[in-house]
Design a protein that fits this description.
Helix content is about 50%, strand content about 0%. Helix 8 crosses helix 10. Strands 1-4 form a two-stranded antiparallel ribbon. The protein has a two-stranded parallel sheet with strand order 2-3. It is mostly helical. It is built from 15 helices and four strands. This is Serine/threonine-protein phosphatase 2A activator. InterPro entries: Phstyr_phstse_ac (IPR004327), PTPA_C_lid (IPR043170), PTPA_sf (IPR037218).
Length: about 350
């Protein structure tokens, strides 16, 4: 059950609301922020110790969203890169994105049952913004966030249900990752924005969060092992985090400690629980608190830019408060060395 009745709720076309640094405070206290972080936390908990290959319930909308992403993948094949002088930012991406933008309403109409069709004008904005910028031909965490907001909204209207939480990550989001990686490689897309010491890779962030949650409690992959070639080759399809490392190794050359220093540092953290909680905090500080990212976020009726109520937001996804560590995990952490190493020397 969603938090709104999709047949009577007043949907609106989302618009930008964060226009200056002064708007960042209201954003971090808004309903949209609370709902979005509630969604991130809920799915983070759902996939704990659940690999990509774990069995999970899949509703009809999970299947139709996968079909939607398959169609977009096919459109890449039908829109090959063009010959051009510049090495990066192939202009064919703009053609692909134009086709997506023009066809997005129809794609969602095919993916959603009739009772959810009224929400399409609001949902479609998040879909078309989830793959990159057609002018700059770049992709970054803001585009990733747009697609995640689409999934969040699908939960809020009830199109995705409680039982779809694992599939939303291990099926839909995993398929989305494969799609955007194909876009990044095919059209040689630029990373959006600038990248400081805290960036994990040039394009994504959330798969590292949810991927580290998948690895909590699995018992055979220690954090330091993701630097090893054998580990990556064996587990990249099974665990999202390891798949991220495989993609980095595929597109970057040189020493891992140099081109992905923060991930190299993370490999020295003793447990996946500590890594997961640390990445959630980092995401809040290094993505959700950055104006260059949030200025592009769109706000509608499902994710509104208005002050959150003092009580917990009415969200159908059961979750702890944002960034709270469940008591059992907190107890486990208390027994560990609280000092995080700053580097780990690969074998």
């Amino acid at each position: 059950m969603g938090t709104v009745d999709p047949e009577t709720f007043d949907f609106i076309v989302p618009v930008k609301a964060v226009n200056s640094n002064e708007d960042m405070g209201p954003w971090q206290k808004s309903e949209a922020y609370e709902e979005y972080m509630g969604f991130i936390n809920a799915l983070n908990m759902a996939v704990k110790n659940k690999s990509n290959k774990s069995s999970c319930s899949m509703s009809g909308v999970v299947s139709t969203m996968l079909e939607l992403l398959e169609k977009l993948d096919l459109w890449i094949d039908q829109t090959p890169p063009v010959d051009q002088p510049q090495r990066f930012g192939n202009q064919a991406f703009a053609q692909w994105l134009k086709k997506v933008t023009e066809g997005a309403d129809g794609l969602l109409a095919e993916a959603l049952p009739a009772k959810y069709q009224r929400a399409i004008p609001e949902l479609v904005v998040y879909l078309v913004n989830g793959f990159g910028n057609g002018t700059r031909i770049d992709y970054g965490t803001g585009h990733e966030m747009a697609f995640l907001m689409l999934l969040c909204c699908l939960f809020k209207i009830g199109a995705l249900t409680q039982t779809d939480k694992i599939a939303a990550v291990n099926k839909i989001f995993a398929r989305y990752l494969a799609l955007v990686r194909k876009l990044q490689i095919t059209y040689r897309m630029e990373p959006a924005g600038s990248h400081g010491v805290w960036s994990l890779d040039d394009y994504q962030f959330v798969p590292f969060i949810w991927g580290s949650s998948q690895l909590i409690g699995q018992g055979h992959i220690e954090p330091k092992m993701f630097l090893e070639k054998e580990c990556v080759e064996s587990y990249s399809e099974e665990y999202m985090f390891i798949g991220c490392i495989e993609f980095i190794n595929k597109v970057k050359t040189g020493q891992f400690a140099e081109h992905s220093n923060q991930l190299w540092n993370i490999s020295a953290v003793p447990t996946w629980t500590k890594i997961n909680s640390g990445l959630l905090k980092m995401y809040k500080a290094e993505v959700l608190a950055k104006f260059p990212v949030i200025q592009h976020v769109m706000f509608g009726s499902l994710l509104p830019f208005k002050p959150a109520l003092p009580k917990a937001p009415l969200h159908t996804l059961h979750r702890p408060p944002p960034f709270a560590i469940p008591p059992t995990i907190a107890k486990e952490d208390d027994s560990e060395d609280s000092k995080t190493p700053t580097a780990n020397t690969p074998e």
